[in-house]
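dude i think i finally got it to work??
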Amino acid sequence: METRIPTLRDGAVTIRPIRLRDARQLERELLDNRGWLRKWEATNPHGPLSFDMKASIRSLQANARAGFGLPFAIEYNGEFAGQLNVSSITYGSLGSATIGYWVSERFAGKNITPTAVALATDFCFFQAGMHRMEICIRPENVPSLRVVEKLGFRYEGLRRRYIHINGDWRDHYCFALVVEELPSGVLRRWQDGTVPDSNATIPEADRIAASVSLRLGSGL
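look at this
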């Protein structure tokens, strides 16, 4: 079931459908931000990372037409700032999807990412009919952990060696929300300052387990 990809805005932040003509800008941002993004990038354990941006965008668009994803470009004051992808969309009895994102280093600290995530999550809940939205984050990715803390995504557990990132299988913390928790929406709750403080709290046992896994994976 294909869902039309909207253009959504709040203040200086816009998320819109990614387009083939974004390929050159997307490639430039990824290359210019290699040091900033490489350690968080999903990688293919069976092949090299591809920088064929047009092919990547076509794949995202085909996935969207099949009803499995919503690929967005993120803009700040009209300037290309990053990407947000809603993926693994499942309808019916599960009604679930996953969010992934990145922004260029020069845009960090401007609340662009939480705003983009809130816009996308509210759309998925209230327009696309999703019931549950999930974000999985590497334990050492402090800026991304701050995003789920700001928006009140609930911590749901540690997933061991879950996604291949930067050349190896990495542990991830899992956070989620369900639509019943948010009658006013994610963005409004954040802007109103009513996000529960403890939602994103990670149990100490999981912090220790992730830390041990990281040391073992680094050969320490």
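Residues 50 and 198 are 39 Å apart (CA to CA).
im so relieved honestly
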